[in-house]
Structures are given as C-alpha cells and as structure tokens.
Amino acid sequence: MHEYDDAAASLAARMAELSIDRLQMQAPLDRTLSPAELEELAGQTVTPGGIGGEAAAQLWEDVLAPACLSIDHPRYLAFIPGAPSKAAAAFDMLIGASSIYGGSWLEASGAVYAENQALRWIADLAGLPESAGGVFVQGGTNGNLSALVAARAAALHARGGTRPARWAVMLTHETHSSVKHALESVMDVDVVEIPGDDRGRLTGSAIRSWLEIATDEQRHSVFAVVATAGTTNLGVIDDLAGIGEVAREQGWWFHVDGAYGGAGLAAPSVRALFDGIEQADSFIVDPHKWLFSPFDACALLYRDPVLARAAHTQKASYLDVLTDDPTRSVWNPSDYAIHLTRRPRGLPLWFSLAVNGTDAYRDAIETTLAVTRAARELIDAADHVNLLVDPDLSVLIFERVGWSDADYNAWSDRLLKDEIAFVTPTKHRGRVCTRFAIVNPRTTVADLQLVLDSMRD
Ligand SMILES: *Cc1c(COP(=O)(O)O)cnc(C)c1O
Fold first, then answer.
1. pLDDT tens per residue, range 95-105
2. Which domain, by its residues, includes 285?
3. Which of 15, 217, 325, 372 has the highest CB neighbour count under 10 A?
C-alpha cells in the first residue's frame, strides 16, 4: 500500500491522465442520481479484499464522477458556482501528493510564506493596514465563525472580563445563514436584526435609528456588527462606510463578509462600492467562489491578528514547541481560526496569482461583471421576465411573469436533467423567483440568453 510498485505507478499515471483530461475538456454539466440508482450502478465498493485499482478507477470514471455536477460548467448558475483557473487546479493536484501540514511555520514555512503573500494581496485590495494578517480556512462558514469568536474575545478583554447578561451581534435579513448559524447555534449569541433598505442593504443610518430606541442593556450587549460585501441572494453591497463609522463610534467589532462578493475589490468598475471596507476589523472572501480556486478555501483577514491569536491559539504541552518559541512560530496559521491541522488550501490561489499576475484576476472578474450587465439588459428587454433587484455585482435575481412555484421547479429540474443548465428557484420578499450567479469568465451572454429563452414556454 505504501510502496511505489508497478500497481502504484500505473494508478498514479491513470489519476494524472484523468486529471489532465478533466483540465482540458469542457466538462459536461453531469447529473444527480438517487441512492437507489447509485446502489444499482456502483454497488458495494468497500470490501475486505479491495476491488483493485483498475475497477475502482473505472467505477469513478464511469459512474461516480458523472453523478457529480461540474460547478465550473458555464451554465452552472445556481447558488454560487466556481471556476478554478487551470494553474490553481493543476497546483491542487501537486499539493494533494505533497503531504504538507499547513498549521505551523515550523512544518510548512515555504507554504505559509506563499499563502501569506496571497493574503497580503487581498489585504491591500481592501486597504487594510500592514499589520493585517490571517489564514485560509475551509470556507466562509468557518471564516465568519472564527472572526466572530475573535471579536467576542476581544470585547471581553476590552471590558475587563465583564460579560453582559447576553452577547449580541447586529446584522440584517440578507446576512448569510452561516453568520446566524455561528451566532445562534454555535456561540449562543443573540442576533439583532436591523431592517434593510429597499435593496436589502444594512445601512449606518438604520443602525443609528436602532440605537435611538435601544435600552442601555440592549446597547451594551452588542459587541459586533456584520456587514455583507455582496449578498449571496441579491449581489448587493451593504453601506460599509456608514456601518464602519457607527461601529467605530460604539466600539464594536466590524466584520465584513465578502465570501462571494469580496473578489469585486479587484475590479475597478465596482471598487468604489466597497468604500469603508478599510475600516474592517475582520474580513473574509472565498477564493473558491469568485477568485478562481478549487474547493475549498476562505481567506480570513484580521486588522489586528494579535487579537485573533489570543482567541484561537490552542495550548497543549505537545504543542508548546510551536507556540512558545518565536524563532519557530513566525506565523502559525492554526492560531487564527477554529482549527489545528489544515491543508495549505491557499496555495492554489497563490500559485495562480504568481503564474498569471494580479492583472489577469482583475480582467477575469471584470469579464464576469460585463457579462452580468449584458444579461441584465436582456432581462430588461424581455417581456416574460422581470429583474427584481438592481445588482451591484454579478447576481441577477428575476421572476418569470405568471409562473408558480411548481413551474419554477419543473423548469429547473428539466434543465438539469437535460444537462443544459443548473439554475434553481429562490425567494425574494416571500415570492418564488430565480437567479443567475455569474462567477465563471467562460459564461457567455449566449449561455444566459439560452436559459432565458428556456423560460418562454
Ligand atoms: C457562500 C457564502 C458564505 C458561506 O461560505 P462557505 O464557503 O459556503 O462556507 C458566507 N457568506 C456569504 C456572503 C456567502 O456568499
């Protein structure tokens, strides 16, 4: 099992060949099978004797892989798709073969150095100070949770260890579910939901209105406010400048969730909408969404990493060698989030940035924004669909005139079954509708036209 014998060599060659094929081809959308279908086609694959390399590889190629959707298909428009660059995807193969422990400087100085350069690029886009730093975690969910845990620890420290009866964090209806989940289910923290404006944006003025009517106890319970730079459902950016200002006045931690939209920082045509982000105490963006990296990676940045380290460093006698000696612990990624062992998951982004340059990122993100604007014009011009929210970034939410829930579902199922497109229903103000999320530079206006046309009959 651990020798590089003939069987291992042929398996490795097969995997390399399959990987390169996948990088080369325009992958089919593929489809979802039921447990019963998979049971019939694949059967029991884990057995005491093993089924052998040839059979396992064939099973993957013929049955299992085609039962996994290709998120980088140009007409995968549901949720938030992904579109890894070739360099990022290829480098991910190498990382998989390399057995690198990405948690500490001692064990992975080269990888951490490279990841930190990628983080620095993002910090500079956001205008965060030189002192800013962080870590790549698994996804936005872990990034938001880790930031909020650091925020609460910093608040407790700032209040001299005195806790309010309840802690609370301010957000709005369009704030991502992962933030509410982190607060309510994981941290047992209350949520103060501030009404959004007509596009669902959290604004500084809405928070000020709340402050006018809040009791002292309510005010005192708040330790952070979460703003979203690119809401997932609507693609809209909150009033970052106004929120940042209130947060600073009140001494609250200002967290910006840019899991999807943060990539827009690299696009000059929308950069002004992010003004105020430079005030953030913490900020996340998912490279696996709109920064062309494979799953899974979230860049988590802190204005003052010392506060994050105080909240997150795990202490254990067997770890003292990592945490106590400054010459060994130059930067331990495990210190900045809720994790210890980690894959160096920022490396595909780093490699692709190093290979292609940051201008290529700017251009690719601008391409997706230009396609979004053109598709918006198609929607505006068509009679059968109505745009529901004016977008800031690359999400278009719209309704098909006269359709019921069942119509949306039947249409969505049919497009997936025919492997034409993956577009799912969503809701806006309680009404069913649908949306395009466009992060793939290979998605064309013609792709979107095709999907819009499929809604005519
Ligand atoms: C996708 C998303 C998240 C969650 O990120 P995961 O990587 O899926 O865990 C959080 N916030 C926003 C705004 C998102 O779009």
1. 999 999 999 99
2. 100-355
3. 372
